[in-house]
Amino acid sequence: MTRERHTKIAILYGHEPSGHVTAARAVGEQLALRGAEVSYIDLSRDFYRHSGEMVSGFYLEVLSRAPIFWRIVYDNPLLVALSRPGRKLYLKLSGDSRRMSAMLDAGGFDAAVCTHSLPCFVLSLSCKKPLFGVVTDFSAHHFWPEENVAAYFVHEETARADMISRQIPPEKVVASGIPVAAAYAKPIPQDAALRGFRLDPNIPCAMLCGGSKGMGDMEKCFNTLAGIDGLQLIAACGSNRRLFMQLTRLAAGMPRVRVLADAADLSHAMSAASFIVGKPGGVTCAETLALQKPLLIFAPLAGQEWRNTKFLTARNAALLAKNTRELSAAARRLMEDAALREKLSAAMSPLSKPAAAEKIASAVLRACC
């Protein structure tokens, strides 16, 4: 009796922790539910073991210390176009493209799904398997390859039109939404979530989120929000252990404040919130949209986060606070003005796509048949 062979899918991302990982896991869960065999490949761990962490650290350092420089050079179409031949040549001469493709062949994978542009670009040069790109921000930067990708999955029609303008065939660009975990499609009621954190269901609550790494002037933001009378607060620190210890000390003696260490699932914390405050990473924004919770953006990083900010504020689906004075004023408005919260939630409705991971998983498996 022969054992039925499942479709094998490799999902590749840049490094942990990151929104790319969260998106990868969301798609992987849906693929597994549909009978696929899924393996996750972390480039920093499994491929660029020695250089991955250094490159990631350099990227974050430039973002925090030289944001103006990053805004000038980041995703500059001319610079990207000029550098593309050199990048292709390097990857071919170094053997990186062949080695990554050989890794997929050795694993017997039927297709590769990339939630980060680097593995997608590397594989596009030599991979013979169907290759899929999942864009985890509201716009796709120009480092995503334009050739040899079976399909791209983007959030909505604006991003789709932009990809098509780069000569990518329309049938290869799907407006699926940014993938989020299944828990965001069926959130628990807010009062139950608040009770789960031993907070009062009758008092407004803000959730402060600094993304997977706990970035974005979190201490300054925490002090501002914790100082607002009548507001409960949940602060999520991501993998930033130093920040967790710091905020835990600050929260001592504050009975209506909760500080969370690294947590893979923040759906309960977000469900407990009357509104969410923090930096606009693509996946965090997609989770917020899925729950249709009012979003107050503070301290966006240059590059994709600033683009995400412009995308949401232009659609009246988020507020932006440029300093702590504006943060305090906007948080008070959201706390006191139910009509404002409802207005923001209504603007989020057409952008909310909690079933994106299901749509992507189904499309990938159809392409593999």
Cα separation of the termini: 23 Å
Total E-strand runs: 12
Strand content: 5-15%
Whole-number radius of gyration? 21 Å
Low-confidence stretches: 50-59
The second-level CATH architecture of the largest domain is 3-Layer(aba) Sandwich
- If helices are DSSP runs of H or I spanning 4 or more residues, what is the number of helices? 17
Please, what is the average pLDDT?
87
What are the secondary-structure elements, in order, as H or E?
EHEHHHHHEHEEHEHEHEHEHEHEHEHHH
Strand order in space, largest sheet? 2-1-3-4-5-6
* Structural class label: alpha/beta
Give short descriptive properties of this protein.
six-stranded parallel sheet, 369 residues, single chain, Rossmann fold, 12 strands, alpha/beta, elongated, 2 domains
Summarize the structure in words.
By secondary structure, this protein is of the alpha/beta class. The chain folds into 2 domains: 186 residues, Glycogen Phosphorylase B (Rossmann fold), CATH 3.40.50.2000; 170 residues, Rossmann fold. 48% of the residues lie in helices and 14% in strands. Strands 2-1-3-4-5-6 form a 6-stranded parallel beta sheet, sandwiched between helices. Helix 1 packs across helix 17, helix 6 crosses helix 7 and helix 10 packs parallel to helix 11. The radius of gyration is 21 Å and the shape is elongated. The two termini are 23 Å apart. About 3% of the residues have low confidence.
Could you give a short description of this structure?
Helix content is 48%, strand content 14%.
